[in-house]
C-alpha cells in the first residue's frame, strides 16, 4: 500500500516509462487499442490516488495528465536523443518527433516539394519520420524496392479505402506484407499484362481513343477554337478505358458526362487515405466517423458496385478483359477478389495514365518546338495527308522522340510522386541496405520518384528542365544512372500495368498531335498547372484550359 500522493505519482511515472519501453517493441496499431490500454492504466491509478486527494475528478485528472505527460515526454526525448537508432540521420526536428508532421505536410498536397527541399538541405538520406527515412540514392534502390528488397511498409495499411477489413484481409495486392502472399496475388496481374493479353485489349484502347478524338473534334468549330479542360477529357478517356478493361464497359463518361460524379468521388475519396497513410493507427477511427470518411466510403462503394456488375457478367463474357485473368486462378470467392482489385484497377490504372497524358500535353503546348518536332517524326512514319490512316500500334515503339517526350514527362511529373515505401519483413530483425547502413525492424524507408528524378547526380544538367533530348543524346554524362528513373517503380512490386500504360501514352499522344493544333488560352498562367497538382498517392490535377483547332494537313508546322 502506497502511503503518499507523491508515491503514487512516482509509480504512475514508472508505468509511463514502462509503457514507452513496451511500445517500442509493440507499437499500437489502432487508436481504440491505444485508448483501451490508456484506460486500463489510468483508471486503477486514479483509484490509488483517490485516497490522497479530495475528489474522484481530481484523482482522474492528476492520474491521466501525469501518465500522459510522462509518456509523451519520454517518447519525444527518446526520438530526439542520440539513443534513437536513426539518430545519425539528419532531418528537421518536427519529422523526428512525430509522423503527425508528415500528415500535416500531406494535407497541403505537396509532400514531394517538401521532401525535395529536405534532400537539398540534408543530403541523400533524410529522417522524415521518427522511424522513417527517405533516400535519394540509386545504389540503395535494389535493397529497398528491388529483387533483394523489402516488403511494403506500414503506410500501405493506412491507405485502405473500404471500411471493412474483410474485403482486403490478406487479399490486397498493394498492402499485403508477406512477400510470398504478395507473389501469389501478383501472378495473375503479371499474366494480365503479358504481350498476348495486352494484344486482346488493343481493340478497346483504339475504340476509346478514337471516341475521345471524335468528342474533341466537336469543339473545333468554324467560329474558332474555344478552350476546353483537356485534363478533364483525358480523365474521362482513361476512366472509360479502365471501365472497359476491368468492368466490361459498364459506364461511358465521354458519352454521358460524369452524371454520377465519379471523378469527384475519386478525388475526394483519396484525400483521407493520403493523410492517414502517415499515421495508419488512426485509419480505423477515421473510418468509424461517418462525416470524416463519407467521401472515401462513397468512392469505395462505387468500386463495389462496379465489381458486382462485373461479377454478374462472369459467365457470359464476350472478350478477355483484365478480370478474366485476375479471376482465372482465384483461390477466393469471385466477389472478394473483384472488390479487392476493383479500386486498385481504377486508381492505379486510370488516374496514373491520365496524369501522364495531361502532363505530356501540358509540356508539348508549353514547349511547341517539341510538338512540331514530334509531328515531323510522326509524319515521317504515318502519312499526314491520310489522317484516318490506321496507326499501327507496334510502329509507335520505334519513334525515339515520342519515347523521349514520354520519359521526360514521367521523369519530371511521375504520376506516383512519393510513397514508394518498404520496411524490413516482420520477424527479420532488420535489413542491411549497404555495408554501412543497417535498419532495424520497425523502420520504414521511402523513395520518392519525384525527388530522385530531379537529382543532378543522375540527370545533368538542368534536372528541373523539360529537355526530352537528354534521352536521345546517348551522352553518358547527361543521364548518369538510368536506374534512378523509376516512374513505374522496380522489383517484385513494381507496376504490372507498365506495358499497357506505355502503349496507351504513345497511342493517344500520337492521335492528339496528328489531329489537333493545341494552344493555351492567351491569359492562361502556365505556372497554374504545376501549382494545381496534388500528391494524394496518385497525382490530382486542376484544369488544363486548351484551345483545339483541327490541324490543317499540308500546312507546315511553324
Ligand atoms: C503511366 C501510368 C502508370 C504509372 C506511372 C504507374 C506507376 C506505378 C507505381 C510507381 C506503382 C507502385 C509500385 C511500388 O510500390 O513500388 C504502381 C503499382 C501498381 N500499378 Fe501502376 N502505374 C501506371 C499505370 C498502371 C496501369 C495502366 C495499371 C493497370 C491496371 C496499373 C496497375 C498497377 C498495380 C496493380 C500496382 C500494384 C503493384 C503491386 O503492389 O504489386 N498501373 N504503378
TrEMBL record:
Functional pathway: Secondary metabolite biosynthesis
Molecular-function GO terms, alphabetical: heme binding; iron ion binding; monooxygenase activity; oxidoreductase activity, acting on paired donors, with incorporation or reduction of molecular oxygen
Cofactor dependence: heme
Family: Belongs to the cytochrome P450 family.
Domain of life: Eukaryota
Membrane-spanning parts: 6-23, 35-53, 59-78
Record's protein name: Cytochrome P450
Residues at which heme binds: 495
InterPro entries cross-referenced by the UniProt entry: Cyt_P450 (IPR001128), Cyt_P450_E_grp-I (IPR002401), Cyt_P450_sf (IPR036396), Cytochrome_P450_monoxygenase (IPR050121)
Keyword entries, A-Z: Heme, Iron, Membrane, Metal-binding, Monooxygenase, Oxidoreductase, Transmembrane, Transmembrane helix
Amino acid at each position: 500500500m502506497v502511503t503518499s500522493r507523491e508515491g503514487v505519482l512516482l509509480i504512475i511515472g514508472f508505468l509511463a516509462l514502462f509503457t514507452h519501453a513496451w511500445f517500442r517493441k509493440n507499437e499500437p496499431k489502432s487508436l481504440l487499442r491505444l485508448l483501451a490500454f490508456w484506460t486500463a492504466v489510468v483508471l486503477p491509478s486514479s483509484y490509488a490516488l483517490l485516497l490522497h486527494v479530495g475528489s474522484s475528478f481530481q484523482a482522474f485528472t492528476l492520474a491521466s495528465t501525469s501518465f500522459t505527460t510522462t509518456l509523451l515526454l519520454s517518447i519525444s526525448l527518446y526520438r530526439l536523443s542520440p539513443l534513437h537508432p536513426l539518430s545519425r540521420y539528419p532531418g528537421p526536428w518536427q519529422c523526428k518527433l512525430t509522423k503527425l508532421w508528415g500528415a500535416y505536410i500531406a494535407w497541403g498536397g505537396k509532400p514531394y516539394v517538401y521532401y525535395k527541399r529536405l534532400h537539398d538541405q540534408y543530403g541523400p538520406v533524410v529522417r522524415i519520420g521518427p522511424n522513417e527515412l527517405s533516400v535519394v540514392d540509386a545504389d540503395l534502390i535494389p535493397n529497398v524496392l528491388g529483387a533483394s528488397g523489402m516488403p511494403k511498409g506500414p503506410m500501405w495499411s493506412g491507405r485502405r479505402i473500404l471500411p471493412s477489413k474483410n474485403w482486403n484481409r490478406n487479399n490486397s495486392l498493394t498492402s499485403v506484407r508477406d512477400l510470398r502472399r504478395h507473389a501469389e496475388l501478383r501472378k495473375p496481374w503479371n499474366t494480365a499484362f503479358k504481350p498476348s493479353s495486352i494484344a486482346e485489349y488493343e481493340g478497346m484502347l483504339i475504340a476509346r481513343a478514337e471516341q475521345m478524338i471524335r468528342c474533341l473534334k466537336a469543339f473545333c468549330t468554324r467560329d474558332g477554337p474555344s478552350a476546353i479542360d483537356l485534363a478533364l477529357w483525358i480523365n474521362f478517356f482513361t476512366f472509360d478505358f479502365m471501365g472497359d478493361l476491368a468492368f466490361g464497359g459498364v459506364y461511358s463518361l465521354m458519352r454521358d458526362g460524369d452524371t454520377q460524379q465519379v471523378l469527384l468521388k475519386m478525388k475526394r475519396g483519396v484525400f483521407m487515405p493520403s493523410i492517414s497513410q502517415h499515421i495508419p493507427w488512426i485509419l480505423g477511427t477515421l473510418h468509424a466517423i461517418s462525416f470524416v470518411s463519407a467521401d472515401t466510403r462513397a468512392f469505395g462503394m462505387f468500386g463495389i458496385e462496379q465489381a458486382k456488375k462485373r461479377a454478374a457478367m462472369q459467365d457470359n463474357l464476350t472478350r478477355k478483359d483484365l478480370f478474366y485473368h485476375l479471376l482465372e486462378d482465384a483461390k477466393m470467392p469471385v466477389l472478394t477478389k473483384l472488390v479487392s482489385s476493383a479500386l486498385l484497377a481504377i486508381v492505379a490504372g486510370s488516374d496514373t495514365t491520365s496524369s501522364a497524358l495531361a502532363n505530356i500535353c501540358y509540356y508539348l503546348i508549353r514547349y511547341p518546338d517539341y510538338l512540331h518536332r514530334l509531328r515531323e517524326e510522326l509524319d515521317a512514319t504515318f502519312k499526314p495527308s491520310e489522317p484516318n490512316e490506321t496507326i499501327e500500334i507496334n510502329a509507335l515503339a520505334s519513334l525515339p522522340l515520342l519515347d523521349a517526350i514520354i520519359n521526360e514527362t514521367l521523369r519530371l511529373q511521375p504520376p506516383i510522386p512519393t510513397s514508394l515505401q518498404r520496411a524490413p519483413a516482420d520477424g527479420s530483425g532488420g535489413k542491411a541496405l549497404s555495408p554501412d547502413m543497417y535498419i532495424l525492424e520497425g523502420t520504414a524507408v521511402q523513395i520518392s520518384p519525384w525527388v530522385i528524378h530531379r537529382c543532378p547526380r543522375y540527370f545533368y544538367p538542368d534536372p528541373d528542365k523539360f529537355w526530352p533530348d537528354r534521352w536521345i543524346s546517348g551522352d553518358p554524362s547527361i543521364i548518369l544512372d538510368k536506374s534512378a528513373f523509376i516512374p513505374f517503380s522496380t522489383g517484385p512490386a513494381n507496376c504490372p500495368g507498365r506495358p499497357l500504360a506505355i502503349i496507351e501514352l504513345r497511342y493517344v499522344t500520337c492521335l492528339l498531335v496528328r489531329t489537333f493544333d493545341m494552344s493555351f488560352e492567351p491569359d492562361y498562367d502556365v505556372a497554374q498547372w504545376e501549382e494545381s497538382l496534388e500528391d494524394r498517392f496518385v497525382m490530382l490535377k486542376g484544369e488544363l484550359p486548351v484551345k483545339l483547332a483541327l490541324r490543317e494537313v499540308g500546312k507546315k508546322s511553324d
